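User: Predict structure, ligand zinc ion.
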Amino acid sequence: MRGAALSTPSWAHVSSVNLSEQGWLSASPNVHIAPSPNFNARPSEEISLLVLHNISLPPNCFEGDAVVQFFQNQLDFDAHPWFENIRDVTVSAHFFIRRNGFIVQLVSTLNRAWHAGVSEHQGRSGCNDFSIGIELEGNDTQAFSDPQYQALLALCQALYQRHPSLNAVRGHEHIAPSRKTDPGPYFDWAHLVQNGPWGVESYPDFRV
Ligand SMILES: [Zn+2]
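Assistant: Predicted complex:
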């Protein structure tokens, strides 16, 4: 059961994307480049972990551009009362996949985006150092859309080819279990395992 009623007027059907040597997708009608200033250099070149998230701003709202504005430090914090909760938060992710399947890239995969926060994977802390972060527009209580899975699979294929050192896929909830619950119980891990480029050993076995 995926594909809740959506208000977004147009749908992307992203079947293939390509990451450049510099870690950027090529812009296209279904791929938007919206650079965020919230990044820095990775401490090493290692990129071994893919982290999946969900986000919507305000929570449960899938309209407007608040998420991208937030990641670009351009959100009007007076536009909604809930935004007061994130007024002092400076974060980013490499990618944001909208409900309609459009992909927004904010940070080059070669750089360190600020999506994981205090986190740990296989005994190593600071997952931002060695991970790529993908935000899915959504929440913990609704299924993600079919166009989002289609775009995610296309993006995963491009990441697999450009960054062959990627060998693990986790949710934010797995690397920061005391703080985070995303992408949450409605994310279809089995779909990603069955259709994505990585083998089952790359996933959290307790969810597959
Ligand atoms: Zn998250």
